[in-house]
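Technical appendix A lists one of the benchmark inputs used to test multi-chain prediction within the project. The record comprises two sequence entries:
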Amino acid sequence: MDISEETFITNLGIHIRQLREKKNMSQQDLANDCDIPKNQIGRIERAEINTSVKALVKIANALDVEPKELFDFSIK
Amino acid sequence: MDISEETFITNLGIHIRQLREKKNMSQQDLANDCDIPKNQIGRIERAEINTSVKALVKIANALDVEPKELFDFSIK
């Protein structure tokens, strides 16, 4: 079954937030580590923006996970 | 170890091409199914653009795979 783009980015944002909190990192910590502004991190987590693959790679590196782990969640 | 963004999008493009060819789809078939222009499909496969999460979801739906499968490759 097709996944809606909006549903996917909502779940992705929640998943990124969970990974970040599991590392005990604040949005500011993550922003500093991946060189993405803190407000953009917040907007990705709240699914307010359709982020890019390169931004995801930077976030994955900062969270010390492989990029594919960012997409590894169950759709709710 | 950190993955470079350029290396990742290069490998992603190769992987998308492989998935598309496995389905015996041309770039035009994929473009039609996911409502993304054919030249943009080509640019994603050749890693000439830093595509968005929503575009990846559309491509995954058109290839009949889960979005996470698009990121499931070994970095070369």
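Chain B touches chain A through 23 residues (CB under 8 Å). Helices of chain B lie at 5-22, 27-34, 38-45, 53-63, 67-70. Comparable benchmark entries are summarised in Table A2.
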